[in-house]
């Protein structure tokens, strides 16, 4: 903290040195310019006539959504069941694939640095690509349906679970691992006795957390044809049946809240 | 039975942890390895079972050259050398029984160990050892529910269930209170005598070394500077091992009032020589 | 099971172990619950797997496309749709930045309002419901609504992402504030500081570092999301990606995906630096 002497001979205190302060101002200035530039690019690409109309459009939308078409709910049980299956089976498949990948990616359990970078690359690619993109791709390959959704969710989950799990593996206590190796155990036994018990709670927590996220993601996969309630949503929107859309929204809302509650409870019980 | 010759260890950073270690251990002998922190005691012990790779030199257990083993043979050799750790190194989330049985991992296939289907004779032996260390009632407890002394007993049971010829013991008492430390050391000594095991105990408490070892090796800056009987340890020798320190001041005081020392303070809490004095006046082994 | 039974069981297990018979204690102690859960899980799996309809002919037909797609990664085509890709990526980046800035700026008041220890109950309830709505719906769903309201184009995307950012940041910020060290706040209050001064001197220093870290993380998420909301017309690279996939132009898709992965990697690298810098 700089304290300088003012011309009047009084000590003056300021939070930062003037150099640091100027650098701070400069950073803010650059940031603000960048933001304004981006904003300008966006506003150039926007039809402001429509935006001015947005309030009326929004009001119109709500008036069409209300009252919800409750009879439609009966036709949503099967799609909702599909959505749950996509999320659950996809998470299970993702766990099965992420588990070995995480062990290959953790610095302390990987068999070889080259394999480690491969596993890290796999994790990053899976994390970078949204499950909807995976679904789009898989629909063109496997055809529309629940299977594409399950695999899309699984592919996206590898990165998420893999990353958090390999970080947990890198943070374990090394001494039990050393002790198990010293008994003459083979590599896999060292993993299953020294490493696995230490990461198991974290692993379970991560998986349940991802399941909860996947429920949310799987509600929209139908928009690209990968099954679940998103198919109905897409159909309702395309036919401008907004009173059905609101029923679907409510259904999604309740399901997601319920899954979040379950996941929080389970994670609480584990930790 | 165990012979080290010309063992050197240099870390990639360039630090020389061990230079030219010559050491030979007969069957059934308990050797205490003493020395200041950073003298290379832990490195020496870990070089023997190759948790740390020695840079050069030869380590032989009976007729096996340990430094050249790899893979399956190294695992086979490790089965004959059990290790006991400073911070117990138990797997916290496994039960006591699982921790003890993990000593048999070198003898059991992966799936058997994964499903916890150990052969009956392993289980019987593990249980017998738990009884021997006084913990048979705790077999289903999780390791992190035990006290420090109890955990170290589990650590000892895990080492012995390996039916080793040699025990490598790294600071067994460093995290324990003085009373428990002595109990643990006595237990180790008894078990070694029962099974005619050789042991290297890496220990910083000279009083305990003196009381429980047959032989003391002093290590300083990676070199052996003393090798002899425990009663040959004199103030001059301690100075060569640990550096200059007024080893005798306390001892004079102790000689003045030997009977008080036993009740007032515990040997492990005193300076090495004063502890020796206290022990020589009190109980001996 | 009562205590006596437990003691009995422990005794039996000891006796068994002494004769060499020992099994791991089951994870769920009560056998009835254990079996019920096992059977329940099996039945669910069977029903769920049975309800998947797979057109195997279509899948077999698609396998050659899958190979094409994998092959495309070895020779991605950045050139033939260069202009579309550049425009899309630039738009995605600008949307990411703008929406993160707006979202974080709005998330701070919402987060303060959603922290029970500093906000009065009515404000707390309002802020919490904003957070819940924003977190429950996937970005795409929100994007659909905003596209209807604001028309096609990046503005709808920016508003969508900003809205999602509010829910994400405000929730974590509120949790941080609820966990903060209350003694520091009291110390500042004891000097006679006003509400604003308390926020600035006691609360801000405690949550600032994490707030910056989370903003960087959210920047990363917003970029990834901006790559998909284009599917419903909310701007960004998503539209180009969608088109290339539905036309089976996998080499262009591969190029776009590689760019996305690279940007995400850069983002992560950058944010780890920023985090080190601010701590």
From TrEMBL, chain A:
Please tell me whether the keyword Transmembrane is annotated for this protein: yes
The subcellular localization recorded is: Cell membrane
Major subcellular site? membrane
**Species in which this protein is naturally found:** Vreelandella rituensis
Q: What does the entry list under GO cellular component?
A: plasma membrane
Keywords of the record: Cell membrane, Membrane, Transmembrane, Transmembrane helix, Transport
Protein family according to the UniProt entry: Belongs to the binding-protein-dependent transport system permease family.
Q: How does it sit in the membrane?
A: Multi-pass membrane protein
Pfam families in the record: BPD_transp_1 (PF00528)
Q: Taking every annotated instance into account, which residue ranges of this chain make up the domain ABC transmembrane type-1?
A: 80-263
- Transmembrane intervals: 22-42, 86-106, 132-155, 241-262
Q: Which Gene Ontology MF annotations are present? A: ABC-type phosphonate transporter activity
The name under which this protein is listed is: Phosphonate ABC transporter, permease protein PhnE
Q: Does the keyword Membrane apply?
A: yes
Q: Which domain of life is it from?
A: Bacteria
Automatic annotation (TrEMBL), chain B:
Q: Where is it found, in Gene Ontology cellular component terms?
A: plasma membrane
How does this protein lie in the membrane?
A: Peripheral membrane protein
In terms of PROSITE patterns, this protein maps to: ABC_TRANSPORTER_1 (PS00211), ABC_TRANSPORTER_2 (PS50893)
User: Per its UniProt record, what CDD domains does this chain match?
Assistant: ABC_PhnC_transporter (cd03256)
Q: Which molecular function terms from Gene Ontology are attached?
A: ABC-type phosphonate transporter activity; ATP binding; ATP hydrolysis activity
Q: What is this protein called?
A: Phosphonate ABC transporter ATP-binding protein
Q: Which InterPro entries match?
A: AAA+_ATPase, ABC_transporter-like_ATP-bd, ABC_transporter-like_CS, ABC_transpr_PhnC, MetN_ABC_transporter-like, P-loop_NTPase
Region annotation Disordered: where it falls in the sequence: 248-270
What organism, scientifically named, is this protein from?
Answer: Vreelandella rituensis
The residue ranges flagged as biased composition, category Basic and acidic residues, are: 250-259
SMART domains, A to Z = AAA (SM00382)
Q: Which UniProt keywords apply?
A: ATP-binding, Cell membrane, Hydrolase, Membrane, Nucleotide-binding, Translocase, Transport
Short name of one Pfam family = ABC_tran
Principal location: membrane
Q: Which domain of life is it from?
A: Bacteria
Its subcellular locations are:
Cell inner membrane
SUPFAM superfamilies, per database record? P-loop containing nucleoside triphosphate hydrolases
Describe the location of the ABC transporter domain by residue ranges: 2-246
Q: What EC identifiers does the entry list?
A: 3.6.3.28
TrEMBL record, chain C:
Residue ranges of the ABC transmembrane type-1 domain?
89-271
Residues that span the membrane, as ranges? 33-52, 100-119, 140-170, 252-271
| Similarity annotation | Belongs to the binding-protein-dependent transport system permease family.
Superkingdom in the source lineage: Bacteria
Show the GO MF annotations. Answer: ABC-type phosphonate transporter activity
* Protein name, UniProt field: Phosphonate ABC transporter, permease protein PhnE
Pfam family, any one: BPD_transp_1
Cellular component aspect of the GO annotation = plasma membrane
Name the InterPro entries on file. MetI-like (IPR000515), MetI-like_sf (IPR035906), PhnE/PtxC (IPR005769)
Q: Would I find Cell division among this entry's keywords?
A: no
Chief site of localization: membrane
Q: In which compartments does the protein localize?
A: Cell membrane
Q: How does it sit in the membrane?
A: Multi-pass membrane protein
Give UniProt keywords alphabetically: Cell membrane, Membrane, Transmembrane, Transmembrane helix, Transport
The scientific name of the source species is: Vreelandella rituensis
């Amino acid at each position: 903290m700089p304290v300088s002497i003012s011309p009047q001979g009084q000590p003056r205190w300021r939070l930062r040195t003037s150099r640091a302060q100027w650098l701070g101002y400069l950073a803010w200035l650059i940031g603000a310019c960048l933001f304004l530039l981006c904003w300008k690019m966006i506003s150039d690409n926007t039809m402001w006539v429509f935006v001015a109309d947005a309030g009326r459009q929004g009001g119109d939308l709500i008036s069409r959504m209300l009252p919800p078409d409750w009879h439609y709910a009966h036709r949503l049980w099967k799609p909702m069941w599909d959505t749950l299956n996509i999320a659950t089976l996809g998470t299970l498949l993702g766990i099965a694939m992420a588990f070995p990948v995480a062990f290959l990616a953790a610095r302390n359990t990987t068999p070889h640095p080259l394999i480690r970078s491969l596993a890290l690359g796999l994790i990053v690619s899976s994390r970078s690509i949204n499950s909807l993109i995976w679904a789009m791709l898989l629909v063109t390959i496997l055809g529309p349906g629940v299977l594409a959704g399950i695999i899309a969710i699984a592919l996206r989950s590898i990165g998420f679970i893999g990353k958090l799990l390999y970080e947990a593996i890198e943070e374990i206590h090394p001494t039990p691992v050393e002790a198990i190796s010293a008994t003459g155990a083979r590599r896999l036994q060292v993993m299953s006795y020294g490493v696995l018990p230490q990461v198991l709670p974290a692993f379970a927590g991560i998986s349940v957390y991802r399941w909860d996220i996947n429920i949310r993601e799987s509600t929209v996969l139908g928009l690209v044809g990968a099954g679940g309630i998103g198919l109905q949503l897409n159909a309702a929107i395309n036919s401008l049946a907004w009173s059905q859309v609101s029923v679907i929204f409510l259904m999604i809302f309740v399901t997601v809240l319920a899954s979040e509650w379950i996941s929080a409870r389970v994670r609480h019980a584990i930790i | 039975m165990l012979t080290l010759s010309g063992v050197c260890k240099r870390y990639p950073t360039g630090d020389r942890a061990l230079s030219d270690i010559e050491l030979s251990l007969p069957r059934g002998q308990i050797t205490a390895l003493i020395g200041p922190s950073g003298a290379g005691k832990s490195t020496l012990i870990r070089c023997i079972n190759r948790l740390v790779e020695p840079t050069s030199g030869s380590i032989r257990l009976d007729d096996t050259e340990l430094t050249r083993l790899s893979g399956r043979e190294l695992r086979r050799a490790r089965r004959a050398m059990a290790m006991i750790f400073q911070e117990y190194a138990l797997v916290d989330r496994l039960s006591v029984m699982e921790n003890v049985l993990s000593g048999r991992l070198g003898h059991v296939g992966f799936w058997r160990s994964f499903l916890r289907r150990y052969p009956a004779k392993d289980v019987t032996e593990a249980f017998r050892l738990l009884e021997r260390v006084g913990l048979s009632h705790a077999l289903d407890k999780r390791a992190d529910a035990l006290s420090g002394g109890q955990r170290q007993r589990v650590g000892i049971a895990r080492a012995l269930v390996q039916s080793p010829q040699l025990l490598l013991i790294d600071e067994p008492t460093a995290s324990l209170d003085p009373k428990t430390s002595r109990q643990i050391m006595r237990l180790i000594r008894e078990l070694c005598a029962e099974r005619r095991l050789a042991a290297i105990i890496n220990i910083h408490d000279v009083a305990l070394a003196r009381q429980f070892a047959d032989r003391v090796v002093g290590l300083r800056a990676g070199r052996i500077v003393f090798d002899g009987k425990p009663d040959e340890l004199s103030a001059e020798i301690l100075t060569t091992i640990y550096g200059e320190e007024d080893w005798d001041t306390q001892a004079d005081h102790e000689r003045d009032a030997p009977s008080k020392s036993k009740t007032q303070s515990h040997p492990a809490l005193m300076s090495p020589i004063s502890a020796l004095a206290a022990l020589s006046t009190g109980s001996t082994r | 099971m009562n205590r006596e039974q437990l003691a009995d069981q422990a005794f039996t297990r000891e006796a068994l172990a002494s004769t060499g018979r020992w099994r791991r204690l089951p994870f769920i102690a009560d056998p009835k619950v254990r079996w019920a859960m096992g059977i329940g899980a099996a039945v669910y799996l069977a029903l769920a797997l049975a309800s998947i309809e797979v057109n195997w002919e279509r899948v077999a037909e698609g396998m050659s496309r899958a190979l094409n797609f994998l092959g495309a990664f070895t020779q991605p085509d950045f050139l033939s749709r260069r202009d579309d890709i550049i425009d899309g990526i630039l738009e995605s980046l600008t949307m990411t930045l703008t929406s993160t800035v707006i979202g974080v700026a709005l998330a701070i008041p919402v987060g303060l309002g959603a922290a029970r220890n500093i906000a009065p109950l009515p404000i707390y309830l309002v802020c919490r419901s904003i957070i819940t709505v924003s977190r429950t719906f996937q970005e795409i769903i929100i994007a659909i609504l905003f596209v209807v309201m604001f028309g096609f184009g990046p503005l709808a995307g920016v508003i969508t992402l900003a809205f999602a950012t509010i829910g994400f940041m405000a929730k974590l910020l509120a949790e941080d504030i609820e966990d903060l060290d209350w003694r520091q706040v009291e110390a500042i209050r004891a000097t006679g500081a006003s509400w604003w001064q308390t926020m600035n001197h006691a609360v801000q220093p405690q949550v600032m570092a994490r707030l910056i870290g989370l903003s960087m993380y959210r920047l990363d998420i917003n970029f990834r999301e901006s790559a998909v909301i284009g599917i419903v017309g909310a701007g960004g690279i998503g539209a180009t990606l969608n088109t290339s996939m539905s036309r089976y132009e996998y080499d262009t898709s591969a190029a776009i995906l590689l760019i996305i992965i690279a940007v995400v990697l850069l983002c992560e690298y950058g944010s780890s630096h920023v985090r080190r810098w601010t701590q």
